[in-house]
Every structure is written in C-alpha cells, then in structure tokens.
Amino acid sequence: MEIRELYLKNFGKFSDCHFFMEDGIQIFYGENEYGKSTIYAFIKAMLFGLDRGRGRAAQNDEFSRYEPWENPNYYAGIMRFTSGGKQFRLERSFDRYTKSASLVCEDDGEELSVEDGDLEMLLGGMTKESFDNTIAVGQLSARPGQELAEELKNYAANYYETGSSTVDLSGALDKLRMRKKSVEQEIKILYEKQEEKREVIRRECQYVTKDAEKLQSELEDNQEKLKTSRDLLRDMELPGEMDEPDKDGRGEAYNEDAGQKKHPDTDSGKSYIPLGLLGIIAGIAGRIWSFFTGSQSIFTGGGAISAMSWMILAAGILLVCFGGIKSIRHRFHKKYGGEELQKQIENQQGNDKQFQKSEKIEQEKEYLQKLKWENQRIKSEWKEKQVRFQNLQEQLAELDMPEPKIKNLQMTSQALQMAEEKLLSASRQMVQGFGDILNRKASGILGQITEGRYTRLLVDEQLNMTLLEDGRRIPVERVSAGTIEQVYFALRMAAAEILYEEPLPVIFDDAFAFYDEKRLKSTLKWLSEQQRQVIIFTCQKREQEIIKQF
Amino acid sequence: MRFIHIADVHLGAQPDAGSAYSAGRPQEIWESFSQVIALCEEEKTDVLLIAGDLFHRQPLLRELKEVNYLFSTLSHTQVVFIVGNHDYIKKGSYYRTFQWNENVHPLLGSELGYVMLQEFNLAVYGFSYHAREIREERYNLKAPGTAEYEILLAHGGDEKHVPVRTDAFENSGFDYVALGHIHKPQALVKNLAVYAGALEPVDKNDTGQHGFVRGEITEKGTHVEFVPYASREYIHLALRVNESMTNGSVKDYIKGTVEKRGVQNVYKFILRGYRDADVEFDTAHMDVYGNILEIEDETRPAYDYQKLYEENQDNLIGKFIGEFSGCTEGSIEYQALQEGVQALLENSLI
C-alpha cells in the first residue's frame, strides 16, 4: 500500500491542503509547529477513523486535539492510495453530525464499504493498536506496547510459513471444549437414565423386602398361634386333668389367645341358653308325661314319646352347655330340686362333657391344620419374595456394568481432551518457532542498522529484549537511548514484516532524534531497500541530506 | 422318533427392543414359547428337548406353574429339560421342590443322569447347573448304550460354561447332542451336535435368525433342520455414507432399509465411510418406526490426513497432525486427531 495523496479538507490547523506522495522515502520537513504531527495524526485518522471519547476523556482525545480551528463542524479529509495495483479514494468526515466514511476504487468505480471491513482487508487486518505498535513510529515512544506481545503470540499460533490460510486457534480450542462439554453432558444423561433404572429396581427391592418383612411377622404370629394350639391340644388329650374350674380357666385364656375367629360361639353362647331351656322344659314335660302313663307306654306309642322327650332334653342340655355350663347348673338347682331328676341331669351332663370335649379336640385339630396350611402359605410366599429379591439384585449388579455407549462417549471425551492438549502443545511449538523467526528477522535488521555492532537480539514472549554481544547478555534497558530506539525499530519492522503481508507504509514522526549520523544513514539505507513507502516527518535536514547521497 | 429341540428361551428377560417394542417384549417371549408347545401338540412331536436357560433368572413358583401348565397341555409329547447357568439350581431354588406333570422329565442333578423313554426306545442324558459357572470340560462323554437311541442334552460351550470340544461329540456315540447356551443357532457337527440358539433373540447382540431345531432319529440316522420361528430379529447394518449424503438422505435410506427388512425387526445401524466435513449426522432423530436401538456414527469427515499434513507441514494443522504420527485407526489418538483436525479446519480460512 502506498499513500498517494493526503487532502486535509479541514483538519487541525490545516484547511483545504493537499500533500502528494511518491513511492520510496518521503520526507516532510518542517520546523516546530509546522503541523507535522497533525499530518501524522491525519493519516492515522483516515486509516482507522477518529472516535470521539466520552465525558472527561473527550477533552484531550485526538478528536478534540485535531478539531479544526475554524469551522469545527466541517472536519473531514480525503486520502488516495494504491493497493494491489489499484487506486482507492478514501473519504471521511469526522464531525459529530456528518460522520461518514466512503471508499471507492477509482479504477473501476466500485463502491466499497468501510463499515463492512473492506478497508481493514486492504490493510491486511491491521488494527489501530498494531499500527501504533509497528509501522507508526512516534516521537520518543518507540517501544512497542504490550498489545504487540499479545498480537505476536496470537499470530504465532496461527503462523504459516507457507500457504495462505489462517487458523483460528482459539476458535478451534473453543470448538473442542464445546464438543467435550456436550459429550460429558450426554454421559451424564446416560448415567442418570441408568440411575433411574436402578432406582426403579431398588424401589421394587424395597417393596419386596417390605412384603417379606410383613410375611415374616405374619409367620411369627402364626407360629405363636400354632404353638398355643398344639399345647392346648396336648392338654386336652391328656385325660384326668380335666377339672372343670381348670378347664374353664384355660378355656378362657385360650379364647383370649385365639381370638374370636376360632370360637364365635362363646359370645353368642348365651343366646343358646333360653333355646336350651325351652328344649329342656319340653323334654322334662315329656318325661313327666311318660312317667304318668308309664305302664301303657311300654307297649304303646308312649315309648316313642318317651324317647323323643329324652332326645329333646338332651338337645336342650347340649345347647345350654354350649352357652355356659355353670349358669345352667345354677338354674337347674334353683328350678328343679328333685333328686332323681338331678342325678339324671348330672349323668346327662357328664356324657355331654365327654362329647363336647372330643368335639373341641376335633375343632382344635382342624384349627391346627389350618394354621399349618397358613404357615406353609406364608413360607412359600416368603420364598417367592426371596427369589424375586435375589433376581432383582442380580439385575442391579448387571446394571452396574458400564454401558458400551457410555464407554464410547468416555473415549470420545478423552480423545477431545487429548486433541486439546496436543493442539496447545503444537501451538506452543509454533510460538517457539515463530519466536526464532522473529528473533532472526529483528537481529538481521538490527545488525544492518548498527553496522554489525549488535547481531543477536532475543525477544521473549513478554517482549523483553536482550542483546547478545560476544556471549554476554545485555538487557536492552542498559544500552544507550539511541540503541534502545534502534532495537525497538528493529523489532517493529520485523513484526510488521511477519504480521502483515501487504507492505504498508512506515511512518516516522521525529523518530530519529537519538540516532547518530552513522546509524541514521544505515537505517535510512535499510529503509530505502524495503518494498515499502517510507514517510518521515522531521524537523531536521539531515535525513534529506542523507537520502540525496543514495 | 421325532423331536423338537429348543434352548435359551430366557423367559422373564426384558431385552431392549427399541421404543416401540421394548415394553411388550417379555410377553412376546412367553408367547413364542407357548406357541412352540402348541406346535408340539399339533405335530404330535415325540420329545421336546430344552437345553437349558428356560428362564432368564431364578424362576418364581408361579412361573414354574405357568410352564408346567403349558407342558400339561401336551397329550403326546414328552418333555426333557436341563437347567442352564442363568436359572441355575441354587440353594432354595424352586426347581428343587417343584412337582412336574408326569410327561415332564427334568434332569436336575449336577451329575450326569438320564431319563428312559421306553415308548421311543430313547434315553436322554444330561445334567443341570448348580452354580453360575462350570469351567470343567464335562461333555467328553461316551454314550452309555442304555437304549437304542441316545440323546445328550448339553448347555455351555464357552470358557466359563463347560468348554466344549467339537470332536468330542463326533465319536461320542450319541445319536444327537442338543446344545444350548450359545444364542446363535449353529451346528457343531452336522445332524449331530447342534445349538438350537435362543428361541427368541434376548439381547440386542443376538442378531440373525432365531427359532428351534426340528429333528428325527430313525434307523437311518439323525436328520435335523433349523426352523426360524422368532417374532423379531435384531439386525445390525453398516451403512456406508459418502460425501454427497446429508441428514435427510441418510434418514430416508434408513427408513427404506427398515421397511425392506421388516418393520417388526429391531435395528442397529453403523454409519461408516467419509462424510462431507460440513455435515454432522443427527442420529437421535432418525428412528422413524421406534425400532432402532442405536445409530453409531463412525463416519469421518472426508480428510486425507497424509495430504493435509503435507500441505500444512509448517503450520499449526501440520504440527497438530504431526503430533499423532503413527497412531492406528480406532485408537483414542486417532479419534483425537479427527476431532482436532475437524475443529481446526472448521476454524480456518482457506
């Protein structure tokens, strides 16, 4: 890129002022206050715009500094330049009301858009900061800023010695990290799903366990009942031990134990008593009747009546016995005092008791059998639960084995991690390689402008510069002010060469004040050999004189 | 003497069969089993041989009752079975106490036993698993010669489950060896030692046809045939993609393939080959019929790493590829290389 014309329509002290430029070294000579820095600022403003600061900062910013002295609302200029063999016209208006920029290719009349980055493209992606840090060499501030270190580092990662593509390292790293994140997310979801499955089984295990526990306690209850029933049965079957009060006592205790289910008749027993009494009365009446008709009855139907009366009597007594033997007895004692009758009744009662006892044993046996069956049922149900539980446990254990899909994803995640690490290590190699190239280039430039005095310059990642002289390391701060400027210059030029393919003009604003004649001469010589336009603003005549000698 | 030989029914298994079929799958396995029983009745098959793993896990009592009921519907067929490693006879197993119908002859001992079926002049030998694993080679047996026809029911064939040597059966003297445990139907010795395979596929890796073996033993010898019977089949298909394929075309292709091979089947697709580097297959949304278990994407963006390396030797891409020199396909390193190159190329201006 070469600047052909600067037209300061209204900029700082300049108004309607044209400057034309050629290839090679262009020198703007002027005494102090001539406006060299204004022109320098104009170039920068044309290339990168001039933004107005905000608030207090606005008072001393470049915008205010170069605000036209007259007619400040007309704050504009035009720059013509060539790039890639084509001529462009860049026009800007800086004032706050008509702020605009237009870029036209004058060869084919094509309108380009500054907003869309067409100018940036022509500048090879250079930003205002990198402009300051490389090709724009100001007064006594030639040390490149820290931004250059960053830019160089970034660039180093993307550095291509050959080819023309650029890789966005941080973009690639971001992509890998994002992929990894999503893979990890997927793994998490799969794990959660597995956990859900496991949870379902665990819950089922709990249900089964609870059921089993319930069955267990049922079984214990039943065992208890079984034991009581067995004891009772054994007692009942042992003869002689059947004293009535004893038996009653035990019977009551037993009834409490077994509950109502087994002896529903105990409660309703009393309702049998009146029924029984009725039977007994009928029976006795029958007996009495047959007693009176004694002689005939033996031969005639009286026998049947007599037998029937016995039966009714027996049934009555049986019923009453069911209800409560004691109360019946008392009532008998009260109602019927006749001795013979009493004997008969007692005899009858004895028989009934015998009968009742065996029936009770039968019942008890039946009950025992039922309990046994119940026991079996509970046991088998419990076992079913146990098998089910074990099967569930087996299923759980199977779920603990990692799914192949998760394994695959884990492998992908590892691979992504590895890709990231390798990419970083590859880029570090690149930085290192790039550092070597930067050092080599800067050293070469420094060597030329110091005429071989310093031939080795080492620049580290933080842009700390060290000179190597006869194997000694000299921090750049220790050398003379002039040499420092020259070291910075070498680094700037090396960086510009590396960072920007498009040879952009180099602009010096009184940058050679500390240079001695010899060094200035070799510097200018070096510059004149470059494929770049060189613009020098100076308040001294020596540059011009040296150039004339070439 | 005509027989049907089934194995590895795995009643109670809940194999993954895709979103559409998984829920009903356990029932389908029972269905299939009861249909085989019905078939035995219909064909008046003489003997039904079950070579182990009738159940997927320890059978519950009610499950045994169900099975016994099904057996009891057989008016002619005699059933002989052994118990395999999945439902092995552990302590307290219902197998130990269950009362089978009279036409059912379980060989539950841990040592070789046999059942004599006089009406067919047949002795069936076998033993059951009393542990999850049996590592000894226990099928190097000679037919004892107790009956005219002799069949061995066997379960196993891998390292942990009675390793089997093929030649052991060849001269064993058995008329037929009904094998179970390996789910893929196959003949170790033709017409002699045969794996019936799982009646229904019970794992997503049980690909291919499943069913049972129908056979006949006569004076002339033994002849068996495999009868495909399973209601579904697991099909694994590799689909080779090329650079012209997109999500839509892959989805359509998969849909078409599923329709052609049967919507009732359950699929796993593996996408292979080189895809357009800009296309990423969204495999989660290609299951049209709910019968796809998985679509594995093994495709690689169409990069030629060697060429890329040569072109980019001096830049980051080249350096990155260089970090992986000599790594083999399928390794983590190779995957890292793919991922990294893809990320780099997606973020570069060429």
From TrEMBL, chain A:
<feature type="compositionally biased region" description="Basic and acidic residues">
    <location>
        <begin position="219"/>
        <end position="237"/>
    </location>
</feature>
<feature type="compositionally biased region" description="Basic and acidic residues">
    <location>
        <begin position="247"/>
        <end position="267"/>
    </location>
</feature>
<keyword id="KW-0812">Transmembrane</keyword>
<dbReference type="GO" id="GO:0016887">
    <property type="term" value="F:ATP hydrolysis activity"/>
</dbReference>
<keyword id="KW-0472">Membrane</keyword>
<protein>
    <submittedName>
        <fullName>AAA domain-containing protein</fullName>
    </submittedName>
</protein>
<keyword id="KW-1133">Transmembrane helix</keyword>
<feature type="domain" description="Rad50/SbcC-type AAA">
    <location>
        <begin position="6"/>
        <end position="220"/>
    </location>
</feature>
<feature type="transmembrane region" description="Helical">
    <location>
        <begin position="272"/>
        <end position="292"/>
    </location>
</feature>
<dbReference type="InterPro" id="IPR027417">
    <property type="entry name" value="P-loop_NTPase"/>
</dbReference>
<feature type="transmembrane region" description="Helical">
    <location>
        <begin position="304"/>
        <end position="325"/>
    </location>
</feature>
<dbReference type="Pfam" id="PF13476">
    <property type="entry name" value="AAA_23"/>
</dbReference>
<dbReference type="GO" id="GO:0006302">
    <property type="term" value="P:double-strand break repair"/>
</dbReference>
<dbReference type="InterPro" id="IPR038729">
    <property type="entry name" value="Rad50/SbcC_AAA"/>
</dbReference>
<feature type="region of interest" description="Disordered">
    <location>
        <begin position="219"/>
        <end position="267"/>
    </location>
</feature>
Automatic annotation (TrEMBL), chain B:
<dbReference type="InterPro" id="IPR050535">
    <property type="entry name" value="DNA_Repair-Maintenance_Comp"/>
</dbReference>
<dbReference type="InterPro" id="IPR004843">
    <property type="entry name" value="Calcineurin-like_PHP"/>
</dbReference>
<keyword id="KW-0269">Exonuclease</keyword>
<protein>
    <submittedName>
        <fullName>DNA repair exonuclease SbcCD nuclease subunit</fullName>
    </submittedName>
</protein>
<feature type="domain" description="Calcineurin-like phosphoesterase">
    <location>
        <begin position="1"/>
        <end position="185"/>
    </location>
</feature>
<dbReference type="GO" id="GO:0004527">
    <property type="term" value="F:exonuclease activity"/>
</dbReference>
<keyword id="KW-0540">Nuclease</keyword>
<dbReference type="Pfam" id="PF00149">
    <property type="entry name" value="Metallophos"/>
</dbReference>
<dbReference type="InterPro" id="IPR041796">
    <property type="entry name" value="Mre11_N"/>
</dbReference>
<keyword id="KW-0378">Hydrolase</keyword>
<dbReference type="InterPro" id="IPR029052">
    <property type="entry name" value="Metallo-depent_PP-like"/>
</dbReference>
